[in-house]
Input
Amino acid sequence: MEKSNKLYTTTWFITLGALLCCALWGSATPFIQLGYKLMLSPEKDVPSTMLFAGTRFTMAGIITVIIYSIGRRKFLLPKKGNWGKIAIVSCFQTVVQYIFFYVGLANTSGVKGTIASSSSSFFAMLIACLLFRQEKLTFKKIFACILGFGGIILVNLNGLDFNMNFMGDAFVIFSAIASAASSVLMKSYSKDEDPVVISGYQFIMGGLVMMAIGLLFGGSIHVTSLQAVGVLIYLAFLSAIAYAVWGILLKHNPVSKVTIFSFTIPVFGVILSVLMLGDTINPMNLLITLLLVCSGIILLNHKKA
Output
């Protein structure tokens, strides 16, 4: 194994890389809410949110291709036979995931949406182990996911109820399944294609589809201030960086070992929402959540000497 590949499989690199991705994705929640206030009408209709998300992802894809092309001193293009694979990843990662997510979130509470979306780690592990046979399903992996999921439920306990509606809660779960499938597909396809290339071009494809859907159904966004421009650029950059790094981690490591860190996304989201938007949270619940999530991550990444 080359030195660079060995680096990607070290525990400290996986931990720092995955936590960077999750912190960026967690920061998306308050910034998206800020973007809604700055660029959308108060009604936040679904076509407009689709257009908003599509604009963000198209920009993210372009930024990814430009930055990594400059870094590698050549223009990044997928191999001829890989356009179809990138389109499949884009379908699950960007189009299906976010259409279900935005429609579902509009029909359920933020608490239930957070919990349902965090189930993607479970689904990623099950898809990787049972459908793609990329790794073995073990009790340790299941228990680690239960610890992480328990932490997410705890941090969202205020106002939680257990009634379920199809257009809301079920749609968010479908979004989580699509996200999980995209992680497994990314690992599978990155054997033949650079994960950064997959990430960049799937964003462009998916973003353009979402923009077209938003415009077709009458959506509109209003970028009328420098603050709005800044928010849009930040959201594009965080997607570009996070998905590229995530793809590299998935290429070189078991899916379950990487996706277990996604339980920290809502934790980062809650902390940043408290700091940026003035939301409130029970400090004790947050502390216990961090302990449960960290325990799950350590358990899954622990190796006997």
Notes: The CA atoms of residues 101 and 172 lie 5 Å apart. The radius of gyration is 19 Å.
